[in-house]
Amino acid sequence: MDSQGYLHVLIGTHGRTFQYVRFLQPNDAGGGWTEPEELGPGLGQTYVGLVCDQKDTLHVVFRLWFDDGKPYFPASHYATLAYMRKRPGEAWSSPKVLLVSPFSEYGVFYHRLTIDPQGRLFLSYDCWSTYWFYRNDHHGTRRALMMSPDGGDTWKLADMEDLTH
């Protein structure tokens, strides 16, 4: 829900383009919804993470499939972890790929998106592949934390300084 009382929702089926809707009236679920709007044509999206910041910008992360193999795996499909945003009164941005799966075929990121009181975005993820040697050659966790200090314009791996400020 944004600061004006509008509930924003992303809906969709596994591997298809997300549909975006919001309340027609603030703080009124019975007042109806906007017509569904695609986030982008032909996007293979799944596993959504959505937050709304203090400026009412919507931020979304998701697994995005590439079926043509380009540019990373020319002979196969592959998964990426991607980001989009919607500023008030604007259209959804184009997807920005933040992470490419280390292998082609199936991959998932087990991601979570959150925002701190300063408005910084934090994205936790862990790559998982169907290739057994990738899963079994490492003890412990591969979980990592990315952050964006500027509302999604830039992203980096978070360091200790980012967590103490």
Would you spell out the secondary-structure blueprint of this structure?
Elements: E1 8-11, E2 19-22, E3 37-38, E4 44-52, E5 58-66, E6 78-86, E7 96-100, E8 107-108, E9 112-115, E10 121-125, E11 128-129, H1 132-136, E12 144-148, E13 156-157, H2 160-164
Give short descriptive properties of this protein.
165 residues; mainly beta; Neuraminidase; four-stranded antiparallel β-sheet; 2 helices; 6% helix
Describe this structure in words.
This protein is mainly beta and 165 residues long. It has a single domain, classed as Neuraminidase (6 Propeller). Helices cover 6% and strands 38% of the residues. The protein has 2 helices and 13 strands. It has helices at 132-136, 160-164; strands spanning 8-11, 19-22, 37-38, 44-52, 58-66, 78-86, 96-100, 107-108, 112-115, 121-125, 128-129, 144-148, 156-157. The chain is globular.
Count of DSSP strands? 13
Number of helices: 2
Assign the CATH class.
Mainly Beta
* Structural class category: mainly beta
Number of domains: 1
Widest sheet: strand ordering:
4-5-6-7
User: What is the CATH T-level topology?
Assistant: Neuraminidase
User: Share of helix among residues?
Assistant: under 10%
- Give the termini distance in whole angstroms: 26 Å
Taken as a percent bin, the fraction of beta residues is 35-45%
Return residue spans where pLDDT drops below 50 for at least 5 consecutive residues: none
